Amino acid sequence: MSSADVALVLDAPGAYRLVERVPAAPGPGDALVRVHASGICGSDREIYQGNRPEGYVRYPVTPGHEWSGTVDEVGAGVPQDLVGRKVVGEGFRNCQVCERCHAGETTLCTAGYEETGFTLPGAMAATLTLPARLLHVLPDDADLTAAALLEPAACIAAAALKADARPGERVAMVGTGTLGMIAVQFLKAVSPAELLVVGTRPDREQLSLSFGATAFRTRDALGGLGEFDAVIETAGSASAARASAALLRRGGRLVLTGIPAPGAAGLDPTDLVVRQIETQTVFGAPPTAWSHAVRMFGAGLLDPLPLVTHELPLTEFARAIELVGSGDPKVGKVLLRPQGVFRK
């Protein structure tokens, strides 16, 4: 049995507390993970502010769907050699028996939405218990701070697989946040002839180039760039979606990962049909995408560590949320650590 640890509980929007608890031993099929770090993204701000769509959060909740850690204990039916291994884990709690789950499309599970950190306890705590089948084992020498970004990386892996970029093609990535910079690395790995990054922040140019981009443009300077074979969008605005579609050649492939505000004016369906643009979207990551992300990470083709700018203890949760929403260009990925005091 594990000793007492601490967890952050969000009772309602804007109301949180730290609680001491003694985690129960993992049940059959489960694993108890000692959390190393938990990342904060826009959806965590939504549940803190109270504007996450209905049905996609259940209070009280311990947030934290982006995380890394080490297996402490396992329940019955789980191999004992998993104990001590560095891991990350899928968030969507799929039923495994519906038609969509059998097809491998676990993020479309028809049993209803359940996800770690939103409707079920997450990783903003010293420990996290979840089904061991959701874990992905990392190399023994893996950097767990960098690995805390593998959840957003898995979402981008899903986008990269759908974009199906091929060697020698012209590809582009629209958006320069965490997802965008991870997407650059996935696209670089397929050896494109050109890899354009489009953003609204000129200060992201050098980082984009360091990750493998061949060119950088702000969204107001896209004229004369020609036509691209595949474009991944991560910015989450209707204007970014339109800019992404405009970059494509006839018959090009568009993958949207950002979620604009409800009711936003989006893509022109006439344009999509006439130019035969193949359009796909991503919400979450199925197991195939997680495996792809973990392989990329293990092979050294994905390095999210330069995106981490702040590491804070759980006691500074409110400050971490403020940093993420500050718009400060010096703020990249913010991580929460369950023990000690960390600050960059």
Characterization of the model:
The chain has helices spanning 42-49, 99-102, 144-147, 150-163, 178-188, 205-210, 238-247, 269-274, 287-298, 317-324, and strands at 5-12, 15-21, 30-40, 66-74, 86-89, 127-131, 135-137, 170-174, 194-199, 215-218, 228-233, 248-256, 278-281, 308-313, 333-337. By secondary structure, the protein is an alpha/beta fold. The protein has two domains: 5-149 and 304-337, Alpha-Beta Complex (Quinone Oxidoreductase, Chain A, domain 1); 158-281, NAD(P)-binding Rossmann-like Domain (Rossmann fold). Strands 3, 4, 5, 6, 7, 14 and 15 form a seven-stranded mixed sheet that branches. α6 (205-210) links the parallel β9 and β10. The longest helix has 14 residues, at 150-163.
The CATH homologous superfamily of the largest domain corresponds to Medium-chain alcohol dehydrogenases, catalytic domain
Mean pLDDT figure: 93
Q: How many separate structural domains?
A: 2
Q: Which percent bin holds the helix content?
A: 10-25%
Terminus-to-terminus distance: 34 Å
- Fraction of residues in β-strands: 25-35%
CATH topology of the largest domain: Quinone Oxidoreductase, Chain A, domain 1
Instruction: Characterize the overall form.
Output: globular
**Biggest β-sheet: count, sense, barrel?**
7 strands, mixed
Radius of gyration: 20 Å
SSE topology sketch:
Blueprint: E1 5-12, E2 15-21, E3 30-40, H1 42-49, E4 66-74, E5 86-89, H2 99-102, E6 127-131, E7 135-137, H3 144-147, H4 150-163, E8 170-174, H5 178-188, E9 194-199, H6 205-210, E10 215-218, E11 228-233, H7 238-247, E12 248-256, H8 269-274, E13 278-281, H9 287-298, E14 308-313, H10 317-324, E15 333-337
Helix pairs in contact: 4-5, 4-9
